[in-house]
Amino acid sequence: MEKPTNQRAWFLVLPVLCVVALSAVIPLMTVVNYSVQDILGPEQRLFVGLEWYRKVLRDPELHGALLRQLVFSGAALAIEIPLGVALALGMPQKGLRASACLVLLALPLLIPWNVVGTIWQVFARSDIGLGGVLVNAAGVPYNYTAHAFDAWITVLAMDVWHWTPLVALLAYAGLRSIPPAFYQAARIDGASSWAVFRYIELPKLRGVLTIAVLLRFMDSFMIYTEPFVLTGGGPGNATTFLSQYLTRLAVGQFDLGPAAAFSLIYFLVILLFSYVFHTAMNAADAGRSSR
Amino acid sequence: MARIELRGVAHAYGAAPSADDDYALKPLDLVWDHGRAYALLGPSGCGKTTLLNIISGLLRPSAGALLIDGVDVTGRPPEQRNIAQVFQFPVVYDTMTVFDNLAFPLRNRRVERGEIKRRVEEVAALLELTAELGRRASGLGAEMKQTISLGRGLVRKDVAAILLDEPLTVIDPHVKWLLRRKLKQIQGELAVTLVYVTHDQVEALTLADQVVVMDGGRVVQQGTPQELFERPAHTFVGYFIGSPGMNFLPCSIEGGAAVVEGRRVPLDAGACARAEAAARAGGGEILLGVRPELVARAAPGDEGAIEVEITAVEDLGRHLIATARLGERTLRIKLPEEARGEVRAGDALGIVFPPAWTTLYVDGKAVPREEA
User: Fold this and answer.
1) Which of A279, B25, B81, B297 is 20–30 Å from B128 (CA)?
2) Domain ranges across chain A
3) H or E segment and range at residue A118
4) SS in 3 state form for A254-268?
5) What is the pLDDT of residue A78?
6) Distance from first CA to last CA of chain B, Å, rounded?
7) Does domain A61-290 have CATH number 2.60.40.1180?
């Protein structure tokens, strides 16, 4: 059937276009504008082309921050996704206990991010913090302000504590939407609990897990507040991630041009990774039904 | 091979049932023979799915015992019973192929590989799924998925009975009858016991050798479709089976005949006496029941003819449904299409309640025709 052409339909999209232009395109374009100019003063600017991009891409400090960022996001995903699913599987299905579990689980999500950083900064201190003192008392030398490894563990532990509940809540909602007939059929087919997880629960969770992976990847890749409060990027540069380095560049040193170029590259990297995750997880699904 | 026996089986979903109403399934005794098709028929919430889940082991009854081939299996989980169950909504394992779906119950039971392949191919041929064996199950249509669910039941060699819980609800009407026919054919070929839950009387009557009519957690009557039609043991059966349902008219007994709205209906004297006795013993009102199909038009000079006034006639193509008034009561009469034009709204019509097809009911229950 041939579709009728109706150009007037564009008018219906116009309001959305205006909103998107104001909220996203115009701010983004100012950044693009900065990234190709050297701004010397309010009235003094110089067009430098792709110079800032070249400079930023060759910056060894940025390479370090990017590598740390990738390791951090990878570790966060590798811990939080399985742990979240495991929590969801272990939660009671209904009744008062289910509600209590949900509320407890949601608590970390309700705490402002800088407060999360502060809580952990105190909690993990090796002189007065409950966590830090206990670990040291157990005979493990631990001091996150002095040792890079300890700082990493602390930042990761904080992120896991803060964000695993989100994965768990998503997975829990996904599990609750599986019709009971699937479990009943599996019992009659004599399936083990591993088979139930592998062939019923995991495939049915694909949708919510895609969302969980995307959300957690994007968020962890942009992490700023919590490590800023907790370690300030230290010791040394050990926990300086991309956002912190960017902030230092833009606000600390006021290098607007390189910072703008950096921002755009940062944005494109997140976009690229999200796209790859999304297509990979969807392709796994599509491969199933088309074969 | 299975003979299913229920002894005093009852179920309550609440923790501590005390009143009769707490039971979704009231105590019942039933025996189902091997290799026959049974339908559990009843309105929503009558306990038919509860009964089915008790047989498959998904539910453990609050009371009573379930025997399969004389062995008490009440406490056994579903995987230790040789029972297959197909659910209302098709259950397939999305990430598996059709072959793997069918092989799943066998693999879980550690059946040897060559045997699995042989069984799956056999069942696929039976269900006409051979061409689809390599396909992913997730992309298939609802009727194909439901066929696979059925196949997962049939693939087990030792399967004693197949339970189906309204399996055709989500199937398009034009393929429903195809699947129903396939089911009937397979049941005949494999001589497997089939228990089919439905609220659709046509489905129940066409598929089953024996129909078990349930209402409010009780079995109201079990019988062949013909028995249910001709001899409803309970007013509920009369009203639930048949379209339109049975006519029930309050009557009194006078001198060995029923009297409806002042008109004498000659009936078997023994039945009348038993009805009177039952009513006097606290049964309450006596109802006279007759199927709309079995109300006869009176020939001139017929003894016991009653005159009714026709208030409406519905033409259903192959037959007519006339609504008639007898005093203050309304009844329906099913007439052959030849009567078109002869019977019109506003006319008077002479009818006869044939004694052979007219039953008296006291307290909802049919009064027996013969001496007990």
Assistant:
1) B81
2) 12-49, 61-290
3) helix A113-123
4) CCHHHHHHHHHHHHH
5) 95
6) 35
7) no
pLDDT confidence band for B343 (50 / 70 / 90): confident
Task: Return the pLDDT at A197.
Answer: 93
Minimum-distance CB partner of A187 among B58, B88, B93: B58
Q: Measure in Å the smallest separation between the Cα of A240 and chain B Cα atoms.
A: 42
Best residue of B73, B104, B158 to probe chain A, by most A CBs closer than 10 Å? B104
Residues found in chain B: 372
Are A244 and A224 a contacting pair, CB within 8 Å? yes
Residue A121 and residue A155 in contact, taking contact as beta carbons nearer than 8 Å: no
**Largest Cα span, chain B:** 78
Split at pLDDT 50, 70, 90, the class of A77 is very high
Interchain proximity A184–B88, CB inside 8 Å = no
pLDDT tens-digit map of A19-38: 988 888 888 888 888 888 88
- With bands split at pLDDT 50, 70 and 90, how would you rate the model's confidence at A286? low
Residue A289's pLDDT band, with cuts at 50, 70 and 90, is very low
Residue B235 has phi, psi (to 5 degrees) of -60, -30
Residue of chain B whose Cα is closest to the Cα of A287? B136
Instruction: Please give the mean pLDDT across all residues of chain B.
Output: 86
How far apart CA B349 and CA B356 sit, in angstroms, is: 21
Q: Which residue has the tokens 């150009």?
A: A7
Residue with structure tokens 């570790």?
A75
In the stretch 170-189 of chain A, residues with CB closer than 8 A to chain B read 179, 181-182, 184-185, 187-189
Tens-place pLDDT, residues B228-268: 888 899 999 988 888 888 999 998 888 778 888 888 888 88
Residue A182 contacts residue B74 (beta carbons within 8 Å): no
pTM, two decimal places: 0.78
Which tens digits make up the pLDDT trace of A211-226? Answer: 899 889 988 988 888 8
**Assembly ipTM:** 0.78
For domain B4-235, the CATH architecture is 3-Layer(aba) Sandwich (3.40)
The distance in angstroms from the start CA to the end CA of chain A is 28
- Distance CA(A71)–CA(A65), nearest Å, equals 10
The answer to whether the CB of B190 falls within 8 A of the CB of B205 is no
Asked if pLDDT for residue B131 goes beyond 70, the answer is: yes
Kindly list the domain boundaries of chain B, sorted by start residue: 4-235, 246-366
> Which numeric CATH code is attached to B246-366?
2.40.50.140
Q: Is residue B70 packed enough to be buried (19+ CB in 10 Å), middle (13-18) or exposed (0-12)? A: exposed
